[in-house]
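= Paired protein data =
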Amino acid sequence: MGSCLRCRMQRIRCEFDVPGGCCLPCKKVENTKAARLPCLRYKITDMTLYKTGQVPGYEWTQRWTKGTSDPIQLWASSEIRTVYVSVCYSTERLPLKVRRFVPQEGDKLERTWAYRGAKKSAIIPPYALVDVEAGTSAYTAYIRASMEGIFRNMLGSTNGLLYKTYLLAYRMWQKEERTSEVFGLLNWTLRLWVAIRLSTTSAFIVGQETLDMPANILDESSPDHGKIPLPPVMGAQMDMILIHHIQNKLRHELLDNLQKVMLRNKPTSWLVTYLVSFILLHNIALITKHDASYADKHGMNRRFAREEKVREYHMGANVILAHFHYCNKGRVPFSEECEDKDLRALAQLDEEKIQFVRATRALVQRHKQEWQKIRSNEEYEDDYFFVSQLFDEKWQPSTTNV
């Protein structure tokens, strides 16, 4: 069953008399100040941070259901074309080589959407990536190239908490020595965050090469009217690259190392663990929003497309929040009682980082009531539903109603 969070942090034996119940060390302190959190058997490495595939019944193909990237064997043409793919949040373009293939059973050959209660569709020519490994290399470069633009276009006002937090993380990532612990955590976090945005944001073909699709291939009832869609099997390959070739590796590195850093709980690691926690919690709101919009786009008549997966995302939010608040016990850097000298002594922060803490503190106070309303209304898709819980001095785990 594993040790609870408190016993792991304190490196003590986690024994219990009732399987699955509160452990004996936690029972001893349950009526004291030491029991700020319940007995929780959470592990950071168990967190779910992104979708693992298409919604059942809405798959683009049945070729790679287990995440394997077997090459397409039967091509309809020897002609190789280069298309450029872009997402709306970045001006960067992703070059990919594609080829017309012979469809097989299970390949989707149309794009679908719901309009006024009816299913609409458009037939799309069957093209696919020629080389998945080359696609992985292209995507890896694209993640770095598009990062700054995606931040700038997705994070709202430059005076807002989202923008200020990501900006500091991005600057620290650029300045840190590549061998440092801080660089590693921010490098995995920021690249993973961008990769997840790319797998949950519609991408379109841009430029002169459109694979013979006209500009109006998606009619006026489509939310993407005027854009050139990706062929579904090609989209499935791109999803597979992002999820299985890129996100899985980054997730493993990030969560393994974040867990080690949090269990060591050194004061000097406080800021980087806060930044990583903030970005991961914001990601959970964004993937929840994606799931809701996907359900709406396809007329599923439910709030979320992947209800069980959304519960997993939100359990992950509890996991990261529990670790952060346990590490933060007795130290409240964002409270008005915490002075600059305390920040310098506690976390060895320089002037730029102290100014960031001050600005964050002011924004938290300004938006406190607004965030409480968002949470009481269970607005899980809101940017601040999860990140606002980092500032709760008496935080407790919550459950999700879907």
